């Protein structure tokens, strides 16, 4: 993926400091251009977020990198 093809956000430190990252995540999602993916790094698989972004037309691929590191790639579904 070329750098312009995605926006990447890591919320692991926010959550460690007990900061709610939802606004930060949604702000990044709003900035996405057509064709861009959103990559999220979190300490767990963010299942509720999958549902929220699913309603906005996103599909996701979640991968467990380490014990407390999940990488989730959200991509907008193609409208045919």
Architecture overview:
- With 80 residues, the chain is of the alpha+beta class.
- The protein has one domain.
- Helices cover 30% and strands 35% of the residues.
- It contains three helices and four strands; from the N terminus they run E-H-H-E-H-E-E.
- Strands 1-2-4-3 form a four-stranded mixed beta sheet.
In short:
The protein has 80 residues and is an alpha+beta fold. The chain is 30% helix and 35% strand. It contains three helices and four strands.
Distinctive features:
alpha+beta, 4 strands, 80 residues, 4-stranded mixed beta sheet
Task: Break the fold down into its secondary structure elements and pairings.
Elements: E1 6-10, H1 12-16, H2 22-31, E2 37-42, H3 47-55, E3 58-66, E4 69-76
Parallel strand pairs: 1-2
Antiparallel strand pairs: 2-4, 3-4
Unreliably modeled segments: none
Please provide the ordered H/E string of secondary-structure elements: EHHEHEE
Report, as a whole number of angstroms, the end-to-end distance.
23 Å
Strand content: 35-45%
Tally of extended strands?
4
Could you describe the largest sheet, including whether it forms a barrel? 4 strands, mixed
Shape designation: globular
Total DSSP helices: 3
pLDDT average, as an integer?
92
What's the domain count?
1
Instruction: Classify the secondary structure makeup into a structural class.
Output: alpha+beta
Spatial order of strands in the largest sheet: 1-2-4-3
Rg, please? 12 Å
Helix content: 25-40%
């Amino acid at each position: 993926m070329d750098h312009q093809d995605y926006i990447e956000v890591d919320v692991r430190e926010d959550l460690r400091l007990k900061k709610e990252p939802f606004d930060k995540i949604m702000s990044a999602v709003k900035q996405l251009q057509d064709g861009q993916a959103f990559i999220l790094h979190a300490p767990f698989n963010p299942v509720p977020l999958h549902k929220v972004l699913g309603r906005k037309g996103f599909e996701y691929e979640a991968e467990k990198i380490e014990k407390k590191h999940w990488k989730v790639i959200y991509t907008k579904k193609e409208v045919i």
